[in-house]
Amino acid sequence: MARLIRVLLIVLVVVDCGEHDYSDRTTATRLVRAEECPCSGGPCEATGTPELVLREVQTIPVMRSTPLAQLIAHDSAIVFAIDGQTGRVQVLSIANREATMTVADSALRTLGWGPNRIWAATDSKLYQIDVGTWTIVELGLTLGVDERIISVAENDSTLWIETLTDTTAKLLIYPSIDRGHLGRLQPLGHVALPGPARIHPDHSGRLVLSLVNSPYTILLVDSSGDQVGSLQPPLASMLSAPNSGTGAVFALAAIPLDCGFILQVLADLQSDHRWFVLYDWNARRTIRIKLITEALGLVQSLGAMRLLIGLRDVGERREVVLFKWAWD
What number is the average pLDDT over the span 22-47? Predict the structure, then answer.
C-alpha cells in the first residue's frame, strides 16, 4: 500500500485584498492533481474562488545540529545546502543519500542554480559545479573594494550576481556562460538596489527580487536590468493581526508560480509565525495573506515539475520538504 502522504493545505483564496485570513494551517485529504489545472481555466481565468494547495510529497531528514546556511535544489530533485559550520556543500538526495563537497578553500556564502549546473560563491569568488560530472571550475570575477557576493541566480540567457557592501546593494548582470568558454566574466551592466534581496528567476527570462527588510517590496527585473514593476504586501493589516509576533520580520524569496502568480513568505525571527502572501503580478495586486504557525520556509520553485522546496523544523527534527502545488 502506498505510503500515506501528509497534506499541508495553505488556502490562499483569490478574493479582494481587503479580506485577509489569519487562521492557522489546515490539513486536508482531498488532493487536486496539478495537471488538471493549467493556466487555461485556472486561477487566471476562473470566475469562482480558486485556492492554492501545497501537497507535501517528499521529506529529506537533516541533522538538527547542523545549521544550513542556504538551501537550493536542482531539477533532478537533488538538494544542495551550505553547512553553516564548515562552509562546505552538502548534497542531499531524495533517496536519503548524503555527501559533502569541498568547493573552495574558504567558507561558501551562497548557492545558486542554473541549467544543469550549480553556482557556489565565497565572499569574492564564484564557482561552477557541473551537475553530472561534478567538476568544479572557478570563474574570474572583478568586484569592488569591500564588495561581497550574497546571491547568484541564472536562467537560459542571463546570470545575475547580487553583491553587498556596508552601504550599497547591487545586482550585476552577465550573459549566460557557455560551459566550454569559462573565463573572466564581463558584466553587461548593473542595477542599484534599495537593500539586500532574495532573488529567483521566473519562467520568462526575468528575475524576481524580494527585499529582505521592510517594506518587503517585490521587484521584477528583465535581462537588461530594466525594472518591469513592483509589488508590496499590505503591512499595516498584516502585521497588526492577532498573534502576529513581536520579533523582527524578514522576507524569504518571492517565488514565481504559474499564471503570473507570485508567492512570498515573511518570517518572524522570534517566533514560528510565517505570512504566506499571494500576488497576481498581471493585475499588480495582493490576492491573499495566510498566517501559519510553523517553522517552515519556502526558498525555491521547480516550475517544470510544479515543486516548491522548503526547510521545516518539527520539534527536535529538521527536514527538507518538497511540495507539489496545484490550483483548486
Answer: 38
CATH architecture assignment, domain 63-193? 7 Propeller (2.130)
Cα–Cα dist 38/46, whole Å: 11
185-203: per-residue pLDDT in tens?
788 889 999 999 999 999 8
**Cα 11–Cα 238–Cα 249 angle in degrees, nearest 5:** 105
Cell numbers standing for residue 219: 521587484
Strand partners, 145: none
Neighbour-count burial of 206, counting CB atoms closer than 10 A to its CB (0-12 exposed, 13-18 middle, 19+ buried) = middle
What is the tens place of the pLDDT at every residue in 251-287? 999 999 988 899 999 998 888 989 999 999 888 888 8
**124 Cβ partners below 8 Å, 6+ apart?**
141, 143, 147, 148, 149
Would you state the pLDDT for residue 198? 96
Burial 308-321 (b: 16+ CB within 10 A, else e): bbbbbeeeeebebb
How far is the C-alpha of 267 from the C-alpha of 279, rounded, in Å?
17
Domain ranges of the chain: 63-193
The whole-angstrom separation of Cα 207 and Cα 228 is 10
Q: DSSP characters for 119-187?
A: EEE-SS-EEEEETTT--EEEEB----TT-EEEEEEE-SSEEEEEEE-SS-EEEEEEEPPPGGG--B---
DSSP designation for 36: G
